[in-house]
From TrEMBL:
Residues 334-586 form the Xaa-Pro dipeptidyl-peptidase C-terminal domain. InterPro entries: AB_hydrolase_fold (IPR029058), CocE/Ser_esterase (IPR005674), Galactose-bd-like_sf (IPR008979), Xaa-Pro-like_dom (IPR000383), Xaa-Pro_dipept_C (IPR013736), Xaa-Pro_dipeptidyl-ppase/CocE (IPR050585). The lineage of its organism: Archaea, Methanobacteriati, Methanobacteriota, Stenosarchaea group, Halobacteria. This is CocE/NonD family hydrolase. SUPFAM superfamilies: alpha/beta-Hydrolases, Galactose-binding domain-like.
Length: 591
């Protein structure tokens, strides 16, 4: 019998209950039939549809066999739940009400743990902010935090690959199905809408360069004969709200948990991957709750992507110990819930904080346990970008020595109609090439500057955040700075981590600052890594102005998501690296 199928007999019950505003939410509960009630309960709230059975659902089958009830709820406006789907707007109140409803069932012990990955991870954190009675622990896996900072958007730019595929493949497709089921779309119209969605997500670069991007639903569904009472924007109801607010404001604050971490008083198990879309969000949740919550927080990071936890990512295989199955991630979840929901402490949670990360290497790697993340002994190390103005053609250098005065800057042209192509990275969703892929072809472009260390005399182990601080000038009203850290070896050049910042948001996502003609300092958050570069290999940094379709290629205007085809223009970019205009790479080095 497969390990993800319960061995114990269980029953299935469907219920509805009311959200605080009276909206009916649909919930399905699997619970043992032979074990003695009451049961501790695990809950997953999902916008992707309640499962018919608990098979192949990670911790669910194991939990039922261990005497838990396991519940799945359709979030508002999805599946069989009522109301309108407004991503994350209602999840705090709805989730808290569901926890309290479950805790009050006659078959419940009154203690509830939550789990799930991606959106089902995010909604746990939001519900925990409400401090519902009965919530005992949360286990957000691959979970975002502030969606404007590092998931669907990132420091002013749009994560187009994730935003487009999720908005159309997940949200619009489900909306079409709900309208079809309600009789508001006939068979042929629903089929045409699905065909339009498939075309848009199959040709992501073309879709990500549609102008103006804010009007994308109208462009995608232009050839679909929708009825008069259904507009293209109705199929992607959040699109205008998101793209009309490039600056962080009260709207984004509605579902940003980060300012309120101090309200969460339950233990957390935070799981993510180094090549995972929500890596930054998961680490933000862990760090914020570690620092501001009174409850213990735990962290596990593997060499995983958003869609693949096998231990193989991109071009690399990290070995037999690297997968979630080999690590025992679901057994770890069950031990976590036994410890904090059932009040039966189990290893490794009976012995202080669990912080484990997989150290990646080109040929494998291994798991390491830490006192915290980053490890307390880790130190920041700064490298200077250097060249003779040739980093876009012959390559530049990374050195520990600062540059002299009057060192020639590097120059390139950003062409929005021919952006630097995405080659791997923390991508989502759909059929994407996520993870580390050889980037040598990308580096041969003349709009990509490369800076590389000499062959390392001893191994360099990175363990923590990475950041690039660049001194840039552009002749456009705005531009993007994209930085990618790479491992350079004889067999290829592989990305370790990367980031982007839109120049007009160089002082924060909550304020737009005009881009002057003079050079400006731009900090690019490149997220975290735990990676070892052996002696003889080299560390490198790529700097460019685009990475498409992962991010929307900047059209060279002051309002990029409202730019028309006529507004698109190339931009001349200059990267400085001289005394008083340094550009640097800062890594966190393990000791």
């Amino acid at each position: 019998m497969p390990p993800d199928e319960p061995t114990a007999a269980y029953r299935t019950d469907d219920y509805t209950h009311e959200a605080p505003d009276g909206t009916h939410l649909a919930i399905r509960v699997f619970r043992p039939t032979e074990a003695n009630a009451p049961f501790p309960t695990l809950l997953q709230r999902t916008p992707y549809g309640r499962p018919e059975t608990p098979e192949d659902l990670g911790v669910a089958a194991r939990a039922i066999d261990a005497g838990y009830a396991v519940a799945y709820e359709d979030t508002r406006g999805r599946g069989d739940s009522g109301g309108a789907f407004e991503p994350w707007i209602h999840e705090a109140a709805d989730g808290a009400a569901t926890v309290e409803w479950l805790a009050d069932r006659p078959w419940s012990t009154g203690r509830v743990g939550t789990y799930g990955g991606s959106s089902p991870g995010q909604v746990q954190v939001l519900a925990a902010l409400e401090r519902p009675e009965g919530l005992a622990a949360i286990a957000p896996m691959f979970a975002p935090s502030d969606l404007h900072r590092a998931d669907f958007f990132q420091d002013g730019a749009m994560n187009a690959q994730a935003t487009l595929t999720w908005s159309f493949d997940a949200v619009a497709a489900d909306t079409v199905d709900r309208l079809h089921a309600a009789g508001r779309l006939d068979d042929s119209t629903a089929e045409a809408a699905h065909d339009a969605i498939e075309s848009a997500t199959d040709e992501l670069l073309e879709t990500a360069t549609t102008r103006p991007l804010i009007d994308l639903p109208a462009a995608v569904f232009a050839d679909v004969d929708l009825p008069a009472d259904v507009a293209p924007a109705d199929l992607v109801p959040h699109w205008d709200a998101w793209l009309s607010r490039p600056t962080y404001d009260d709207f984004w604050r509605l579902f940003d948990p980060e300012p309120d971490y101090g309200r969460i008083e339950v233990p957390g198990l935070h799981v993510t991957g180094w090549y995972e879309l929500c890596q930054s969000g998961t680490l933000a949740n862990y760090r914020g709750l570690r620092d501001r919550s009174s409850a213990p927080q735990h962290l596990v990071v593997g060499p995983w992507t958003h869609g693949d936890t096998s231990g193989e990512a991109g071009d690399l295989n990290f070995g037999t110990d690297a997968s979630t199955d080999a690590y025992g991630v679901w057994e770890t979840h069950l031990a976590f819930f036994d410890t904090y929901v059932r009040n039966c402490p189990r290893p490794p949670f009976d012995d202080g904080r669990l912080v484990e990360t997989f150290r990646t290497e080109l040929g494998g790697g291994g798991w390491e346990r830490h006192d915290d993340w980053p490890p307390a002994a880790a130190e920041r190390e700064r490298w200077f970008l250097r060249s003779s103005g040739t980093a876009a053609t012959d390559g530049g250098r990374l050195t520990r020595d600062p540059p002299p005065k009057f060192e020639s800057p590097d120059r390139w042209t950003h062409d929005p109609t021919d952006p630097v192509p995405t080659r791997g990275g923390p991508l989502c969703c759909g059929d994407v090439d996520d993870g580390p892929y050889d980037r040598r072809a990308v580096e041969r472009r003349d709009d990509v500057c490369t800076y590389t260390t000499p062959p390392l005399s001893s191994a360099l182990e990175l363990a923590g955040p990475v950041r690039a601080d660049l001194t840039l000038a552009t002749d456009a009203p705005d531009a993007d700075a994209v930085a990618t850290l790479v491992h350079v070896a004889d067999e290829g050049t592989y990305p370790i981590t990367s980031g982007i910042r839109r120049l007009r948001y160089r002082r924060g996502r909550d304020r737009e600052v005009p881009v002057p003609d003079d050079p400006v300092r731009v900090a690019v958050d490149m997220w975290d890594t735990h990676h070892r570069v052996p002696a003889g290999d080299r560390l490198g940094l790529e700097v460019a102005s685009s990475d498409a379709p992962r991010f929307d290629p900047h059209p060279g205007t002051g309002r990029p998501w409202r730019a028309t085809e006529e507004d698109v223009r190339p931009a001349a970019q200059t990267l400085f690296h001289e005394l008083d205009r340094e550009s640097t790479l800062t890594v966190t080095r393990a000791r």
